Amino acid sequence: MFEVSGRTFPLSDIKHEADAPMSDHTTFRVGGNAKEIFFPEDMDELLMVKRCFIGPAAKCMVIGKGSNLLFDEKGYDGVIISIGKNFSKAEVEELEDGAGAVIRAQAGIRLADLALLARDHELEGLEFAYGIPGTLGGAVVMNAGAYGGEMKDVIESVILIDENCNIKNVPASDMDFGYRHSAVTEKEIVAGAVLKLSKGKKADIQAKMDDFQARRREKQPLEYASAGSTFKRPEGYFAGKLIEDSGLKGYRVGDACVSEKHAGFVVNLGHATATDIKQLIADVQRIVYEKQGVHLEPEVRII
Ligand SMILES: Cc1cc2nc3c(=O)[nH]c(=O)nc-3n(C[C@H](O)[C@H](O)[C@H](O)COP(=O)(O)OP(=O)(O)OC[C@H]3O[C@@H](n4cnc5c(N)ncnc54)[C@H](O)[C@@H]3O)c2cc1C
């Protein structure tokens, strides 16, 4: 039996970790402990965990790679469901007309692995996703995108567990995909997705992936812990340019720093705390608003 908030649950068979530091489960590498993290390995386990934590009083959230999340020092006083490598099966089914294929994948697969699977089957359209360090589930929730591509371009449908634990197959047209936005609520879980991709040439697909990776390495501070672009792109502007033009490159609060390489990234130089990062984000918002009159909205989800 497993106990949380004074209630007991028959969940001890499911892989889990108590008092788990969120710094180990997020790419910013900061954050205090979560009470418990579960790592379900199949749909039954996922549903079992979800069923135990339904209802307004239940404090429960789902994470993928934690590459767009910032937990504070208090951590998370509840249960985290981590959907990662244990929940990452994928299969490819060629279309009868030979024009492409569909990929059915579980939410925990890394986008990089999904892009490699597509490349190996000579399927184009996922090259943009190769360098995004998240899972399919997180990418659906965020409608992740880069270099002109977005998840909404390749998703046919999403397998969603709703708040009452019903499994639904939701067509992409009902997902309300927009810029870093989808219809998925905090009470729902993306269990997987169906992607439709066209036939391409392996060499061309590889060349595109190499080009995008080279551009990332040249422009982004990949040597430091971060959560990628800290702010959303304001309509008509680029967040990085606004921050740079406000003289904030290299601006620091403790070990939290506006990257010298790409001002759109807040990086952890080593020992930043979540408080440092949050203070830095607030300072950047204030100074950019004072100097440029534009409000920056965080893309990073602050818990
Ligand atoms: C170096 C770096 C580069 C990046 N580059 C890009 C980029 O080019 N483009 C881009 O869009 N993003 C980029 N990101 C941000 C991040 O990788 C994406 O937002 C990614 O889609 C997040 O996936 P994740 O699995 O890590 O989700 P998490 O960060 O774990 O979660 C993100 C949100 O989704 C929810 N969630 C996660 N999984 C599920 C699920 N299965 N069911 C329901 N809810 C879920 C979480 O509760 C949270 O609200 C970058 C990040 C880093 C660190």
What does this structure look like?
The protein is α+β, with helices and mostly antiparallel strands. The chain has 3 domains: 2-82, 2-Layer Sandwich (Uridine Diphospho-n-acetylenolpyruvylglucosamine Reductase, domain 2); 86-205, Uridine Diphospho-n-acetylenolpyruvylglucosamine Reductase, domain 3 (2-Layer Sandwich), CATH 3.30.465.10; 221-302, UDP-N-acetylenolpyruvoylglucosamine reductase, C-terminal domain (Uridine Diphospho-n-acetylenolpyruvylglucosamine Reductase, domain 1, Alpha-Beta Complex), CATH 3.90.78.10. The chain is built from 6 helices and 20 strands. The strands form 6 sheets. Strands 8, 9, 10, 13, 14 and 15 form a 6-stranded antiparallel beta sheet that branches. A 4-stranded mixed beta sheet has the order 3-4-7-5, covered by helices on one side. A 4-stranded antiparallel beta sheet has the order 16-19-18-17. Strand 17 (252-253) and strand 18 form a beta hairpin. It starts with a strand and ends with a strand. The structure holds flavin-adenine dinucleotide. Residues 27, 61-69, 83, 107, 132-135, 137-139, 141-142, 144-146, 184, 189-190, 222, 226-228, 301 line the site of flavin-adenine dinucleotide.
User: What percent of residues adopt helix (DSSP H or I)?
Assistant: 10-25%
CATH architectural type of the largest domain: 2-Layer Sandwich
Small molecules bound: flavin-adenine dinucleotide
Average per-residue pLDDT, rounded, comes to 94
- Separation, N- and C-terminal Cα atoms: 28 Å
Structural class designation: alpha+beta
Summed up, the helix count is 6
Task: Specify the CATH class of the largest domain.
Answer: Alpha Beta
What string, H for helix and E for strand, traces the elements in order? EEEEHEEEEEHEHEEEEEHEHEEEHE
User: What can be said about the biggest beta sheet?
Assistant: 6 strands, antiparallel
Beta-strand residue percentage? 25-35%
